[in-house]
Amino acid sequence: MRYASVMYLHKGCEEEYKKRHDELWPELAEHLKQHGIRNYYIHLDRNENRLYATFDADDLDAQSLADHPVMQRWWEYMADIMATKTPSFEPVADALEEVFRFNVLQPDKTRVVAVLDIGKTNIKICLMDGQTGALLHIEKRVNGVVDAPPYPHVDVDSIWRWIKDTLADLAQRYFISSIAITTHGATIACMKGDQLALPILDYEYDGVSECKDEYDAARPDFSESFSPRLPQGLNLGAQLFWQQKRFADEFSTVDSLLLYPQYWGYKLSGNKAAEVTSLGCHTDLWNPTSCQFSTFCEQQQWAERFPEVIETGAKLGTILPDLAKETGLPASCVIFNGIHDSNASLVPYIGQPMEKLTVVSSGTWTVIATINGKLDALQEDKDMLANVDALGRATPTIRFMGGREWEQLRSDSKATLSDVNFILENGILAMPAFAKGGGPFAHCEGRIVDRGIALTPAQQSALADVYVALMTDYCLDLMDTSNTVIVEGAFSNNLNFLTLLACMRSQNEIYASRDVTGTSGGAALLSNKSLKLKGRLSLALCDPQIKPLLNLYRQQWRDLVGEL
């Protein structure tokens, strides 16, 4: 609802009134925000010394707003330069009646940033409040791969239909002022004009290995790209190399290469761009220390096919006019240059003043990155790499497919700490790895040491929790890790995982992000730097009753891991 009123200023006090509002007390600004007040404007009519004020608010509690001490102090502070009531000092304000409106941009709808979050397992559209950054709404669907010729590929047609239908539905209830984009990495669109020259390859396709020997001979050294050699198509350079060899005619028509977030940005805005977080995501295409294309990428003549590299979160343009009409989105809706999802989880923290900070981003992949960490501890054979953050800085990283392994090991029953105790007491071990996509033990076949004990469904889930905690702990030991470790994403809500990690890592303070959309929140923050994301954190606590047993169990697991 919009509120409008007129107030009366004493003659000669115009400049003083403006000065005091230029220096508005922060506590008063916060008080107004807490009451849902937004779009607050005050205009001065110098001829009559009248002040015309308008603001928007939903369900305004005017009495609570007025009774607060900070409001009372402000009125008293302003009483010497404007007409006020006695004895309250409340400004004399006459309500204004609306008699006409024209071309109003849906003032009855909440203004939001929509975040298009395309993961390997799920696709989401998250709506974040345009002022506070609070998560207001999530729409979600399962993602999949089209297993059909010429190779397994991304189902872009299905995804695009869902995006348009979902945005059209949301646009009826919310004013979507902008769209931010975050996606998984290792995915690229080979474009011929405005169409795909080839389907977007699924990075888990084993057929890319046909060119393994040739690719290994051509790819850059780890010291240049800080990209480890990964299986399947997880090195983006390996995908392009294979497509160029296997589909030479189609590849010869490719005039632009769009990284996955930028492909969707192009679909929404019609403008092509490149961006560093996806270019630097174990691709072999980027030199993260010099922040430029790798010599390999230049030699393959791919660098010239990438559009201009522009800032992460920069404005790509406004939504395509025909798309705005089809979906009901406002024509002014801004589309922003997207970001690799694990890097989006770092965004709320990359401006923090501390020297180093380690973030565990959990989803299909568990990605552990240390902001301002050193690169000299990276080991290629452990699937350690340098990612590139939104500021273009090389960021030491290690990862494993924690979410996928956890899904494979768990049951539908939730585990209690008592179930975890059962696993520890009986020495039931899950030995890596249960997914072949990557990680320090990607070359190993996962197995369970069950001691001849049949597990209940809840105990199976407990084993999954223990396994992922052990793997995270192991990876943190390999990293240049900070004293503070923040868990983002799916595992930030897994109490067993957090408790186990806190028990194993007394040298660190382990925090869980209470904002369950770390990836989406980071993408939204990049596109709207005025958002006030609080980044609420909870300290994970060790359970002293399980720590002695866990220490013995951990050492036994580490001894067996050392033999792999």
How many structurally independent domains?
Answer: 3
| C-alpha termini separation | 65 Å
User: What overall geometry do the principal axes of the alpha carbons give?
Assistant: globular
Given as residue ranges, the uncertain stretches (5+ residues, pLDDT < 50) are none
If you compute it from the alpha carbons, what radius of gyration comes out, rounded to the nearest whole angstrom? 27 Å
Total count of strands = 27
**CATH-defined superfamily of the largest domain:** ATPase, nucleotide binding domain
The major pleated sheet works out as: 7 strands, mixed
Structural class: alpha+beta
CATH architecture of the largest domain: 2-Layer Sandwich
Keywords, separated by commas or semicolons:
20 helices, 3 domains, seven-stranded mixed beta sheet, Nucleotidyltransferase, domain 5, alpha+beta, single chain, 564 residues, Alpha-Beta Plaits
